[in-house]
Amino acid sequence: MTPQSVQSHVVTRATRAVLAELVVAGLAMVLLVDGLSQAYQELLGTPFIYDVETYLRAARGMTIFFDTAEREPWHPFWLRLGLAWFGDVERAARLVTVAQTLLAGMALYGFCRAHLGVLTAVTTLWLFAGNHTVHYYGVSGLRDPVYAAQLLLFFWFMFLPVGVPRAARTDVWAAVWGAVLYLTRVYGLLQVACAAVWLLFQARAWRSPSRRDVLRRVGVVLTALLVTVALDRILRGTNHVGNDVIYWWAREKLNADPTPDMPRMTMLQYIMDGRTVWDVVERVVRNHGLFLRAYLPSFGHGWTLASPTLLVVGAALAVWKRREFVPVAVVLALAPAVFVLNVNMVPTAFGVDKRLVLQAYLLALPLMPWSLWTLCELALGVLSRRSPALAPVHAWLVRWQRPGGPGRTSDVDEGTPSSL
Description:
Layout: H1 3-43, H2 50-60, H3 74-86, H4 89-116, H5 118-129, H6 132-137, H7 144-158, H8 167-184, H9 188-203, H10 211-236, H11 245-253, H12 267-272, H13 277-300, H14 306-320, H15 325-338, H16 358-364, H17 367-386, H18 391-400, H19 411-414
């Protein structure tokens, strides 16, 4: 076989692999569109959740991008475009959220493919596309789908390898999505800053040969974030800060909604109100367990033990496989809501609305199929030594589990932050 024919054979095989991947992923997106369409038809004409009305008011009142009063501007900007395009308020709000949910699906696929491999990406996308909770919030008019999408996009680029070709472009995209994340929820400030700190720690930037590349990414991301925060505070003011903190205090202390005469408070005041530092730590740890026991299985619609078990196994394997940034991303996604997970938003129901942990669910979801595929890979690796006939199956699984796709070298070889 000539070198030209060998190259042609490799190209043909790669093309077939890409086409197969596109078909399977495309079918998952069709399933997602179908689920969203059914939810749209069922919910059309029903009242919005109260928060949607506040976003719509902010959208109608926009004169410049930051002119959204107490609401962060990114979601009202989407709604403003939707109102201009569709005219009808309900259709605009619900269809804008449909578009944002489709973006979240693509971001989820991209994040998984880049960091956990194609098999995990395809499996995760199918699980996402068939989830009824995703369908419900995907036509709700709320900002939670776009918030989840922005968080996935930010983590996707933030944790890509440094010190490789096109890394400078990756730095810019990480900075852009980090800034947009803050403009979607102010708590994005915490998540972006903590992700930057984690990247420095994970990369051991104080003694790494790629120290300059790591510091450049962190510097670009934090600079973009600080500029965005400054513009937001100058043009939109600071009245939005702490608006919802008194709500959580009233729900927890009084089991009632706040009244207009209640004083404003900061998040730190709420967290430390009548509590010691140890009380706060204990509650945060306990609420992480609550997420595993109660919230996570509720997305699985009956998989009470499977979801938390697979997540824990996946997190352990991620640490072992030097993908520890994935469980860290889950923790960061949950961080803004973790302190209030034990607060009852409605007196007749337990806990908070699941939309507040939707982004954490989407970051946790990939670890579940990835843990199964990784265990299969390890088992086949052992069995193929005893039965050589299984070696091609094992090689195929390893190739399709490779981050970035079957045609890429491992990102550990390329120099991920965790391997520097």
